[in-house]
Design brief:
- The chain starts with a helix and ends in a 12-residue tail after the last helix.
- The protein contains five helices and no strands.
- The longest helix has 24 residues.
- Helix content is about 50%, strand content about 0%.
- It is an all-alpha fold and about 130 residues long.
């Protein structure tokens, strides 16, 4: 009887060693690394001639001074019409900063007014710098 108990214990110890060896020898591969977004954004440029945006001064002047009626959209908005929001914002920002429009402006407000008037939006996080 003692030999049977000894054989059973030896068998269980052997199984334990075998299972622990199998468990510790299997390693899970690390999860695949997710590519990190590129933090180097390309600086957006204006594909239009900034001097041509001087026609937006009349529209902006009318909008800022609350002229009764609707200022003409055609000259200014037609220049911005085929641009995406970011390009339009960069173009107007450049024109405002270069004082091409010929009037002193509050940059964020003026930019937002003109873009909204022409059916564009200020891109989220965009700062006119």
């Amino acid at each position: 009887m003692a030999s049977r108990a000894l054989a059973t214990t030896a068998f269980l110890l052997t199984l334990n060693l075998l299972f622990f060896t199998l468990v510790t020898s299997t390693s899970c591969p690390p999860p695949p690394s997710t590519p990190k977004p590129n933090k180097h954004h390309h600086k957006a440029t204006c594909p239009k001639d900034t001097l041509k945006l001087g026609v937006c001064a009349n529209v902006l002047n009318d909008l800022v001074h609350l002229v009764v009626g609707t200022p003409p959209k055609t000259p200014c908005c037609s220049l911005l019409g085929d641009l995406v929001d970011l390009e339009a914002a960069v173009c107007l920002c450049t024109a405002i900063k270069a004082n091409v429009l010929g009037i002193n402006l509050n940059v964020p407000v003026s930019l937002s007014l003109l873009l909204n008037y022409c059916g564009k939006k200020v891109p989220e996080g965009f700062q006119c710098a």
